[in-house]
Design goal:
Blueprint lengths: L2 H22 L1 H5 L2 H13 L6 E9 L13 H11 L4 E9 L3 H9 L9 E3 L2 H9 L7 H7 L1 H12 L3 E2 L2 E2 L2 E5 L5 E6 H7 L7 H14 L9 E3 L5 H9 L9 E2 L12 H13 L14 H8 L3 E7 L9 H8 L5 E4 L13 E2 L4 E6 L7 H11 L4 H7 L6 E4 L2 E4 L5 H4 L5 H4 L3 E2 L6 H10 L3 H14 L3 E4 L7 H23 L5 H31 L1
Parallel strand pairs: 1-2, 6-16, 8-10, 9-17, 12-17
Antiparallel strand pairs: 3-13, 4-5, 6-13, 7-10, 7-11, 14-15
């Protein structure tokens, strides 16, 4: 392990220790909330006319266009006017930097006086820790009384993600699209070589060799048959095409649990083969943010890559830049990675149906108002307005799909610059069933990219493997997750870049280290939880 990698692991491990220390103080910070919460609820039920303040967390990405701020913009004003003023509530938004999501939330949760009434997190282990330590409100009865629209919108399948031991400690956001990863190939390269798109892993390997040896674009040493980055979208699709699901079309939910699957070693062996034959990006280990891969692809140097579905298709993005740089280029979405451990299906990861975990701290006096706010968001057109803006100005409806008006002024577009962060009940445009949501998502892309987007979604939805939802938290995830996630990257880099005759020794060494720092305990607990589920 390099010194740089070790420093990264130590830094993140320190963050985990901080989280645990702050979590230990959670009960002290939240213990006084029971009576206050009950008083707040009874006061509301009794018809109190006292104007109260509801504090709601909001992600701050530092991208607020002038004159807006993250706490005072068109959407915060919309919420205040349409929900707050009509319910005698002042809605106050509390900014949290997206990059410091968990660390900042731990600090807030340890202080009953400063924590917002509505908080959220994407990490399930953080949610479970708060719930186990008594830091969260059980919202089951509140949903029955004040959350009719909310319950109907989310449905039982999504709500179960927020349950622990039969109690509803979180209100999960709803993910509009479960499609996750896609593979893209340069169709014009195939055409120049007179080749058809590969349909199996072996055919892909032969295609990549042809891309290197015959260099259809005449790139010389800039030629990269397969673009690769040390990012999940770069390596996860390939790994999933080798691993065996643990139960039907389901598998463990955390990325760092991939090494515990049958087939993981074979995936590493294939990556090692591609690397040593010069078929993938040489410096992929230095490209965790995909900056170099993005440059290489849009400059026309990459023949094949895997990516988040739709990621290259946004306006003025990678695909549009590729067309400018290489006018005769053509890109196709394809399925090609076949899984020998899953009947040669094109297995790939899909998202669970839940988004973020929305929680009400136990110390909150405004639990009723918090549920009412979320219920309001789930009613009428409020979610659509918060994510998309005003009909006729920001978008027009076509066959039930909101289509963005490309000729809208910048001022109008800026209304919903932070719509995704304000509409916390939905990840994406959740306007109906999966098919409707996919159409709405596609309609938000430039017209020249929409057909490829439809093809991308179709590929991304084929032979997917979803996450198992256990009925209890996996303690080892919270305990070892950060260190194991860092170790996963080390395993991938070291195994891929090892000389072929050293692969076996390098892989076994790194895997043994993985098991020693928590992998063994995690494996044991996951298998026990799986037996309980069965």
């Amino acid at each position: 392990m390099t010194g740089q990698t070790r420093r990264g692991v130590m830094k993140k491990a320190a963050g985990t220790v901080l989280s645990l220390m702050l979590g230990a103080s959670l009960l002290a910070g939240c213990g006084s909330g029971d009576k206050e919460q009950a008083a707040g609820a009874s006061g509301e039920a009794g018809g109190s006319k006292e104007r109260v303040t509801l504090k709601v967390e909001v992600f701050d990405r530092g991208n607020s266009p002038s004159p807006h701020t993250i706490t005072n913009n068109w959407l915060t004003q919309y919420v205040q006017k349409e929900f707050g003023d009509k319910n005698n509530i002042d809605v106050e938004f509390v900014p949290v930097q997206r990059s410091e999501e968990t660390t900042k939330l731990n600090v807030l949760m340890a202080s009953a006086s400063d924590v917002p009434d509505i908080v959220f997190v994407y990490d399930s282990s953080v949610f479970y820790r708060y719930a186990q330590q008594g830091g969260l409100t059980d919202v089951g009865e509140l949903l029955k009384e004040h959350g009719t629209n909310l319950t109907k919108y989310l449905g039982d399948e999504t709500l179960k993600f927020g349950q622990l031991e039969g109690k509803q400690f979180a209100i999960p956001g709803k993910r509009a699209i479960t499609a996750r990863y896609n593979s893209y190939i340069r169709q014009d390269w195939l055409d120049k070589l007179g080749m058809k798109a590969p349909k199996t892993t072996e055919e892909l390997y032969e295609t990549l060799k042809a891309f290197k040896e015959k260099d259809p674009a005449g790139l010389g040493d800039k030629n990269i048959p397969m673009g690769l980055a040390l990012a999940p979208s770069g390596y996860e699709t390939l790994i999933y095409s080798f691993i065996k699901p643990v139960k039907g079309d389901l598998t463990y939910s955390q990325r760092y649990e991939m090494p515990l699957h049958e087939g993981f070693k074979e995936a590493m062996q294939f990556m090692n083969k591609l690397y040593n034959e010069g078929l993938v990006s040489k410096d992929f280990s230095l490209d965790e943010e995909e900056e170099q891969l993005t440059k290489d692809f849009q400059n026309g140097n990459v023949g094949f890559m895997t990516e988040d579905v739709g990621q290259i298709l946004y306006a003025d993005g990678v695909m549009d830049n590729l067309r400018k740089n290489v006018p005769d280029s053509k890109v196709a979405a394809i399925d090609t990675l076949t899984n020998p451990n899953a009947d040669n299906k094109y297995t790939k990861s899909r998202y669970g149906s839940n988004g973020m975990y929305i929680m009400i701290p136990k110390s909150s006096k405004r639990s009723v108002e918090a549920v009412k706010y979320l219920d309001w968001m789930a009613s009428g057109n409020n979610l659509l307005t918060m994510s998309t803006g005003v009909e006729g100005e920001n978008y027009v409806m076509e066959d039930g799909i909101p289509v963005i008006k490309e000729d809208a002024t910048q001022e109008v577009k800026d209304r919903v610059y932070n719509g995704g962060d304000m509409a916390i009940l939905a990840n994406g445009k959740a306007i109906g069933d999966q098919e409707m949501n996919e159409k709405a998502w596609t309609a938000g892309f430039p017209k020249q990219n929409q057909e490829l987007m439809r093809e991308s979604i179709a590929v991304a939805n084929t032979d997917t493997i979803g996450p198992i939802v256990f009925n209890r938290p996996i303690e080892a995830e919270a305990k070892y997750g950060t260190a194991l996630n860092d170790k996963l990257k080390v395993i991938i880099v070291q195994s891929t870049m090892a000389k072929p005759d050293q692969f076996e020794a390098v892989y076994e060494r790194e895997m043994q280290d993985f098991m020693n720092i928590g992998g063994s305990e995690l494996k044991k607990e996951l298998e026990a939880a799986l037996q309980e589920t069965n």
